[in-house]
What does this fold into?
Amino acid sequence: MTRPNGSFGVDIIGSGSGLPDTRLTNADLEKVMDTSDEWITKRTGIKERRKADIANGELSSTLAIKALNAALEDAGITKDDLDMILVATMTPDMPTPSVACVVARKIGAGNIAAIDINGACSGFIYTISMANAMIQAGPYKTIAVIGADTLTRYVDYSTEGRTSAILFGDAAAALILRRNDDTSRGLIAHRMHTDGEGSKHLYIPSSEFDIPEDSEYRVEMCNRVQMNGQAVFKFAVSKFQQVIGDTLADAGLTADDVDHFVCHQANSRILDSARDRFGIPSEKLLINIDRYGNTVAASAPLVFTELAKSGRIKPGNKVMFLAFGAGLTWGSSLWQL
Ligand code: COA
It folds into this structure.
């Protein structure tokens, strides 16, 4: 049997989500840009997404706190049991302090370790593997790993921005990891990758100095998502399949051995391609993009939370977290529960 690597076992003892109340449906988008429900549904699988009320203080940190409180309750522990808060985000409330520090202060977590990790849509997958490493290194026993993003604040809701505007939604989701002495449970294998050469296909410039050499600068580009949809699509399909294959090989497993593929939700066609390639049945790869769109770092933990709440995550399951995103980045984290 494939065993987790490390001196300690690690359990995922709780999960929770934090979602804005405001829904942005395809019909809402039809009113502000030249698009249609039919086009969006066919090309992406998205029907609606949530949008944070930034003007009234709904931020990555407030969604993260909502998610963390739900996960703590689910785990049956309190903030006082936490040793560390890690937040995967590319949309912090402000450059500093980090979302993790804001969360720690607002929940009254005292002087525990708290830091953000920016891996864009792959951020949560990197972070959960890094949390395992911190538990193995000690002395941390209980770590909250949160994915929290409010990318809609960087989206252009006009026809010019329609290719990316239709994709993104806001959300947070949190998992609680806890060390135990039973090494039969925990991280089995993981992969973390980047390709900086592809960064020009998906970025948010702050100034003209951030524009790739082969693109022409316009001031309206600043603080707005810039995406070459077709290039990202091709990258995602190929890397998603490659990272699943590599992670299974590292672990000495086949796709049949994995109970749930907990995938970043960027486009249902990208997920279908992975399902077809490995013969993964639909009950092992939950797609919830229709309701939330692409929620960046919150995407995979949101899927896990939904599976857990509906009783589909069982003790003994093997779960592979997967994502790809800006950077370009991609990765996996395979867990024995
Ligand atoms: N509504 C209607 N038409 C749209 C549209 C929209 N929201 N966005 C683009 N179009 C139009 C284009 O202008 C183009 O028109 P043309 O043929 O007259 O030139 C046509 O639809 C096709 O555009 P294209 O960009 O080739 O579409 P696509 O099939 O590649 O789908 C995406 C676009 C964005 C849905 C797809 O490329 C994708 O999902 N890419 C991956 C993006 C991603 O996952 N990003 C996040 C990574 S974490």
The radius of gyration is 19 Å. Residues 55 and 319 are 38 Å apart (CA to CA).
